[in-house]
Amino acid sequence: MIIVLKPNAPEKRIDELITEIKGIGLRVDVSRGAEQTILGLIGDTISVNEVRFEKNDIVAKVMRVQEPYKKANRLFKPEGTVVRVAGESIGGKRLAVMAGPCSVESERQIIEIARQVRKAGAGFLRGGAFKPRTSPYSFQGLGEEGLELLILAKKETGMPIVSEIMDAAVLDKFVEHVDIIQVGARSMQNFSLLKELGKLKVPILLKRGFASTIEEWLMSAEYVMNGGNENIILCERGIRTFETYTRNTLDMCAIPIVKRLSHLPVIVDPSHGTGISWLVEPASKAAVSLGADGLMIEVHNCPDEALCDGNQALTPEQFEIIMQKLGPLAELEGRSI
Amino acid sequence: MIIVLKPNAPEKRIDELITEIKGIGLRVDVSRGAEQTILGLIGDTISVNEVRFEKNDIVAKVMRVQEPYKKANRLFKPEGTVVRVAGESIGGKRLAVMAGPCSVESERQIIEIARQVRKAGAGFLRGGAFKPRTSPYSFQGLGEEGLELLILAKKETGMPIVSEIMDAAVLDKFVEHVDIIQVGARSMQNFSLLKELGKLKVPILLKRGFASTIEEWLMSAEYVMNGGNENIILCERGIRTFETYTRNTLDMCAIPIVKRLSHLPVIVDPSHGTGISWLVEPASKAAVSLGADGLMIEVHNCPDEALCDGNQALTPEQFEIIMQKLGPLAELEGRSI
Amino acid sequence: MIIVLKPNAPEKRIDELITEIKGIGLRVDVSRGAEQTILGLIGDTISVNEVRFEKNDIVAKVMRVQEPYKKANRLFKPEGTVVRVAGESIGGKRLAVMAGPCSVESERQIIEIARQVRKAGAGFLRGGAFKPRTSPYSFQGLGEEGLELLILAKKETGMPIVSEIMDAAVLDKFVEHVDIIQVGARSMQNFSLLKELGKLKVPILLKRGFASTIEEWLMSAEYVMNGGNENIILCERGIRTFETYTRNTLDMCAIPIVKRLSHLPVIVDPSHGTGISWLVEPASKAAVSLGADGLMIEVHNCPDEALCDGNQALTPEQFEIIMQKLGPLAELEGRSI
Amino acid sequence: MIIVLKPNAPEKRIDELITEIKGIGLRVDVSRGAEQTILGLIGDTISVNEVRFEKNDIVAKVMRVQEPYKKANRLFKPEGTVVRVAGESIGGKRLAVMAGPCSVESERQIIEIARQVRKAGAGFLRGGAFKPRTSPYSFQGLGEEGLELLILAKKETGMPIVSEIMDAAVLDKFVEHVDIIQVGARSMQNFSLLKELGKLKVPILLKRGFASTIEEWLMSAEYVMNGGNENIILCERGIRTFETYTRNTLDMCAIPIVKRLSHLPVIVDPSHGTGISWLVEPASKAAVSLGADGLMIEVHNCPDEALCDGNQALTPEQFEIIMQKLGPLAELEGRSI
User: Fold this and answer.
1) pTM reported for the whole predicted model
2) Which end of chain A lies in a sparser environment, N or C, as judged by fewer CB atoms within 10 Å?
3) pLDDT category, C35, cuts 50, 70, 90?
4) Interface test with C, best of A3, A8, A29, A64 (most C CBs within 10 A)
5) Kind and range of the H or E element at D273?
6) Which pLDDT belongs to residue B246?
7) Dihedral, CA atoms, B68, B70, B74, B75, nearest 10 degrees?
8) Quick check: D2 and B240 CB within 8 A?
9) How far is C-alpha B238 from the geometric centre of its chain's CA atoms?
């Protein structure tokens, strides 16, 4: 941490500040310029609140020189994390593909889709039981019944399941049956929920908030990891910008960036990220070329009648074609799908 | 709702679509152009999901002509809502000023600040017990102990209290003692929480999400109101933009806009909205001139030592000066403070 | 400027870097930590390109500690600049109000509006002759003919005129007749144009680019000042955000911020900033309360028939009412209007 | 175009409005609801200004149902445009790669780089002579001398050259010698310049403004095409968002979107789009997978000493490696490089 002092800060005050800094266990290096003096704080500054210095009236500026996350930081764990779940893995050589409907709607729907995406090569079945919807008048998901149907589909097909949790109140049920618990974009900074998830061993799929920086996203991963659960899968799903053609702007470069900053696996959700079904194929291809560890794709047996986000869902046939096209791309990256 | 059909949509398909629309209880007016046919849907379309039409391959575009919120809409309740709580009111002639520390830190701190802000004219005491912090290594608030101290300060001073809830798990305690339950920016779309709050009668202070549109904000109010709780106070607190000088960009014009679109009272939080203490005075003055129904201001007896957001907190003396300056401005708006 | 070195940077390389820095005339202070060494560069670093250091493979990070603008910086000129033009001044006690139509449309129109806004108290007549329009199919302004009509209105009423330049090719005509040359938001980083304007003495009204930071805006002022023309008036006119209700989001807090960072006067354009005529009054009031040195307001004798931006224009009667309301607010700020 | 009337609009006023619309040569279809009446305007509405209707006090809302661009619209020219220049083409089967330094710095530098990028497979040499820089204290390019050096490199290597124009004043020189004239992001809405370029036959590389929507970008292409020059190459180069890790956020999905909306070729500039040299490879791969027609990449023989943007430049060796990796990806898209 660097503290830039104001020009003409009195020596006495500078000395007091140095004493204060030493008092919290840090070393101080002093660099005196003709106009400005600069203090370099040496030691473990991650938990030091810069505000205490910023408020000092002889201080002009406080700057951090280190990333504020530790457990998620690749600096402290150079090799990539591979999350293992139910015989599948995420972050390894094979790309993890999670496919299924936005919402679980009926037994027939979810089982039919599960079989179809499995046949096309998906490793995981995704399906929403509890749906975050902007309007209280929109379909809110089937809730616990939806979860039951998803569990049924898991039994029928053997596929591990991924589903979003919105509320710690139903956590027990998730822990028992859901293989990967998804934290949606709107919950990325639901810190109470993150703390609860930190107590588990179940892998967490942590979507990036639609207005969160990469650093904030990694800090939310740090919340869960700090609680003891290091099985985190990050998921880029688009950020909010001024562009209105797509629902969100997929921040594609976030993939290689996160891979460099953190050891955690990162996948991409091109369905929510764009909101447009015909963009799923090109966006998926790009994600693979950028080094993503997997994809989360919405597939519906009848997108025209989907109760939620039908605009972005693919038919099983379209999904199968994409999977075939992704193969050679994955191979170019030294991966398989 | 307007449905624009694609050029050359076959008559038979158009007829089927019209039959489908009538089947859900709406009237249809058909406007046939040389190139495009347009359908006007007449009736209660708020709960109709446009996706079902967008997915129809003869449809080019679906457009809504009405706001998607009803209970929060001024159209259906032209006079402004006044929220009454513990002898005070928000939305009436007198501006509601909520002041206090970002975090409750100790008995002495909160009681001292409460007395000072009360003396300076604040009507409500704000104080955080549960704090949403980006980093797990930052101070997270005193939790239930903080709430107890806040309740103590309420007893000591008689001031109604405002505090943020992050988790429905502690709702009972809030309901019993907290006069206004605050929903923070990061929780604005925590729909599970909003539904719980909809079952109460306690007034809810609903902060705008930092990346939420005005319409989404009003939709979140609609969630609570749809549950039965119409005591909502909206609070503008800045949005995320590309500008980095301030922590957020206060969307000042949102005040008159929300007042026009909705009957709910709206206040402004210039402390979080800017993150800079010397901006609180000018931003507060602007808010009053723009018709805000009140202000939420951070005051700390010792901002330099605040455990949280000290950079934006005012001293009680600074707060008092602002209160005095706001008086004549409020008067110009036909209000008092 | 601060250079943070990577852990384990070899001593030899550090010495070479220090020699390089000294070679460009700067002093270096070295702060050696257990893990990281930090170099403090002392001297005139404004013209030093940090990239040369960032590319050095022993360097982890380069950080600037000073603002990159000098001539526009209040640090080097504490008292505010007052721009004087044709007997009027901007930045002084009296607020500068520039009013008139978006586009000059006819002799009768511009003279009639000029008389009306003058009567209502405006000090300057604004009118567009060359209009930047997103579509080539929209009205592009009357061009030189429009400028002639504006000059005519100036002769008739004695009001100094403000008009936007889009192209240095017509600069001579502007220099001869236009009292304040406006640089529009889309031209804020037209550096060729800024350099030409720097050679003049005519005051320049520099609008903020709709996606420019406050620092970039001040850097554009620096371009003109660096050329020798220090008569700059800054104008906040809204930034582009995700919110779509208003055309732009007025960054109201930019007013007190710019007043603190720079000595240049700053005015606000609530008409373009919001794009909605009924927001002009509240936004103007807020601007005055925030310390703006003036306003630029669109007034049209017949907004319904305006060839450009009629949605945001006020009638002369509405303008007059606003001017009356602003009086007491200006007085509270120790200003007049 | 759709006009939604306010509830209870008087019949007489509705009739007057219909008469007005017919008067400008459009047909009107009227759809009367219980609460609201809607008018459908049939005919060529692209040049109709919606404001004239929005200002009518019986009108609630005006909505466009067609894109506002014609000449750039794929609807009116389904097959893709191939721009041909100096024996090379852009938009055809072979990807167009433009490589070279941000700034031309010396004869030796530009000729050396030209030879190297040509050897690695680049079809075009890019080099900046006139540089748009945020700070007046940064290197502004060699100007006309730089252009001469670029022309020299063209003679030496036979490569067609691409260079940015900032000012119509030097247009003649560009027309005579530059094969593709680049319009930079900051000039995308320099409408005076666009009109001048519309009079030429020289191909124009039109970069997307960093805060421009896709529609505004296509409207700027429309400006040039409307003047008669249909040789436009679009170039995505990143947009401004809240994320600060990269200089801009590359809007990767804009590639397939623009390909669908328009018949014009589109390339990507991953160097400016990210500002980070190690992101150029993954971003280039993604661009190819997304269907881009080419790439513009910064290559410098000595990035550490580059006078401009050295942080994002590749060495010729790094560039060669990327070119090799792109080959198989292009092949998967049915393209070559």
Assistant:
1) 0.91
2) N
3) low
4) A29
5) helix D270-274
6) 94
7) 80
8) no
9) 11
Q: How much is the pLDDT for C181?
A: 98
Identity (one letter) of the amino acid at A120? A
Whether D31 and B33 lie within 8 Å, measured CB to CB: no
pLDDT computed for residue C259 by the predictor: 97
C-alpha to C-alpha distance for D295 and A184, rounded to whole angstroms: 35
pLDDT of D34 higher than 70: no
Kind and range of the H or E run holding C214 = helix C214-227
Residue from the list A2, A29, A242 with its beta carbon closest to the beta carbon of C242 = A242
Binned at pLDDT 50, 70 and 90, residue B128 comes out as very high
Which residues does chain C have within 8 Å of residue A34's beta carbon, measured at their own beta carbons?
A: 27, 42-43
- Beta strand extents in B68-213 (DSSP E only): 83-85, 88-90, 96-100, 124-126, 161-165, 180-183, 204-207
- For residue range D225-278, what is the model confidence (pLDDT) as tens digits? 999 999 999 999 999 999 999 999 999 999 999 999 999 999 999 999 999 999
Instruction: State how far residue A264 is from chain C, nearest Cα, in angstroms.
Output: 22
User: With an 8 Å Cβ cutoff, are D214 and A245 in contact?
Assistant: yes
| Residue keyed to tokens 């693979």 | A288
Round to whole Å and give the CA distance between A304 and A314. Answer: 10
Type of residue found at D274? T
Give the CA distances from residue A94 to residues A91, A123, A186, A291, in Å, rounded to whole numbers and listed in that order. Answer: 8, 10, 29, 12
Do B52 and A310 lie within an 8 Å CB cutoff? yes
CA–CA separation, C155 vs B120, rounded Å?
A: 54
Q: Averaged over A259-277, what is the pLDDT?
A: 96
Which of D33, D42, D242 shows the shortest C-beta gap to B240? D242
Nearest by CB to D239, from A241, A282, A285: name it: A241
Beta strands D2-5; D59-63: pairing state: antiparallel
Q: Which two tokens stand for residue B289?
A: 């001139």
Which ranges of A143-190 does DSSP label H, i.e. alpha helix?
A: 144-157, 171-177
- Give the residue extent of every domain in chain C: 2-63, 74-332
- pLDDT at residue D92, rounded to an integer: 96
CATH number for A2-63: choose from 3.30.70.1140, 3.40.50.150, 3.40.50.2300, 3.40.50.300.
Answer: 3.30.70.1140
Mean pLDDT is lowest, of C10-14, C303-307, C323-327, for: C303-307
Give how far Cα D241 sits from Cα of C207, C317, D184, D250, Å: 21, 40, 19, 10
Taking only the tens place, the pLDDT of each residue in D307-337 is: 776 678 999 999 999 999 999 999 999 999 9
Rounded Cα–Cα distance for residues D172 and D161 (Å):
16
How many angstroms separate the CA atoms of B143 and C44, rounded? 50
Chain D interface residues facing chain B, Cβ-Cβ under 8 Å?
2, 4, 27, 29-36, 38, 40, 42-43, 60-61, 63, 65, 240-242, 244
Residue position matching structure tokens 């446009």 = B50
Residue A76 is predicted with a pLDDT of: 82
**Whole-angstrom distance, CA of residue A297 vs CA of residue C108:** 62
Write the residue in C56, C137, C227 that is nearest to D47 by C-beta. Answer: C137
The two three-digit tokens of residue D258, written as one number? 């623009």
Listed range (A135-139, A198-202, B95-99, D159-163) with the worst mean pLDDT: A135-139
- State the pLDDT at residue C34: 63
Top CATH class, A74-332: alpha beta
Residues of chain C with Cβ-Cβ distance to B273 below 8 Å are 253
Most C CBs within 10 Å: which of D1, D13, D44, D49, as the mutation test of the C interface? D49
Convert the pLDDT of each residue in D67-119 to its tens digit: 889 899 998 889 999 999 998 999 999 999 999 999 999 999 999 999 999 99
